[in-house]
Amino acid sequence: MDDDVYEKYKRAGKILAEARDYGAGLVKPGVSFLEVANSVESKILDEGVGLSFPVNISRNEIAAHYSPRHDDKLVFKKGDVIKLDVGSHVDGYIADTAVTVEVETHKYDDMIKASSDALDKAISLMKADVSLSKIGKAIEETVKSYGYKPIDNLTGHSLERYQLHSGMSVPNVSNMFNKIKPKAGDVLAIEPFATNGGGHVISGNGSNIYMCERSFRSRAVRDNRSKILFNKMKNEFKTLPFAERWSEKLFPNSDLVLRRLSYLRLIRQYPQLIEINGGIITQKEHTVIVTEDGCEVTTYEKGHKVTT
Ligand code: CO
Q1: From 3.40.190.10, 3.40.630.190, 3.50.50.60, 3.90.230.10, which CATH number describes the 3-199+277-297 domain?
Q2: Could you give the residue numbers annotated as active site?
Q3: pLDDT tens digits, the chain, 308 residues: what are they?
Q4: Ligand 1 center to residue 222 CA distance, Å?
Q5: Which CATH class is domain 205-271?
Q6: What are the C-alpha distances in Å from 235 to residues 49, 195, 212, 250?
Q7: Which of 25, 28, 216, 297 has the fewest CB atoms below 10 angstroms from its CB?
Q8: DSSP string for residues in 123-154
Q9: Residue 190 Cα, ligand 1 centroid: separation in angstroms?
Q10: Which of 143, 152, 119 lies closest to 295, judged by CA?
Q11: Do 260 and 94 contact (CB within 8 A), yes or no?
């Protein structure tokens, strides 16, 4: 990785870590999801750093993929278990990090610790040529040692320029079929989840998060207006996920546009990911740059001390 690219990854991570911790501090009873999403996104943008995906605020049995709509009414309540998952990029070089906040209660402290310890463990093992199955096994064992289950069908992922999921998966369970090994310079988001449910997620309602399809047969679309709208979206959001809130700024009353373009399969809405038995879910995530003998975390909080 050349110095210029390295510095971009580092800056994306540093600004994002600050925004994540700032956002986590805003999660209080009575505060709206919308206020936290907008505040965190503004904080990142104010630094001149881009957003690699909308702020995800996922409550209780929702593992991931909920972002408030522009007119969202949800507010945090005492006892909520909130996953705040945020993403930035500098010139397309991405950082991705998440933290779990339990709102004013401490019922799930050990589940929060389970996903956090599993992440520390994974980071301590990560290096060039390590088997990703071994990382998954360590995550699974750590989560289980707390009496919880990892989510077996959610994984971490490799990052490439303007690509949030670029092909390599970092499993959260032992997976002997995963023979892939990272090499120095690869950038990975590692994200263990823990649950008191079944350990599996299924697709739920829409997330209010969309993405432009990478390739489409433009000749197959006869409707010129849709084509123009799609091109405008693609120019704005490129290959990265975007929020209904962002589309609303681009086209007021964007619901119809989003529905039309989804119908034509030019864009796609992500579903919410819900625990199969309705179990509570915790998550922690960092982005790392793999090196020959370890990895460098780009999204640690200021003054982070390695404890493992
Ligand atoms: Co993430």
Answers
A1: 3.90.230.10
A2: 85, 96, 157, 165, 191, 285
A3: 999 999 999 999 999 999 999 999 999 999 999 999 999 999 999 999 999 999 999 999 999 999 999 999 999 999 999 999 999 999 999 999 999 999 999 999 999 999 999 999 999 999 999 999 999 999 999 999 999 999 999 999 999 999 999 889 999 999 877 788 999 999 999 999 999 999 999 999 999 999 998 766 655 677 788 888 899 999 999 999 999 999 999 988 889 999 999 998 899 999 999 999 999 999 999 999 999 999 999 999 988 876 54
A4: 37
A5: mainly alpha
A6: 18, 39, 10, 11
A7: 25
A8: HHH--TT--HHHHHHHHHHHHHHTT-EE-TT-
A9: 8
A10: 119
A11: no
pTM over 0.90: yes
Distance 229 CA to ligand 1 centre (A): 28
Q: If you measure from the C-alpha of residue 221 to the centroid of ligand 1, how many angstroms do you get, rounded to a whole number?
A: 33
* Side-chain half-sphere CA neighbours of 99 within 13 A: 18
Taking the centre of ligand 1 as the mean of its atom positions, its distance from the CA of residue 10, in whole angstroms, is 16
The Cα 23–Cα 85 span in angstroms is 10
Residue 190 near residue 286, CB atoms below 8 Å: yes
Distance CA 88, CA 280 (A): 27
Q: What is the DSSP string of 25-42?
A: HH--TT-BHHHHHHHHHH
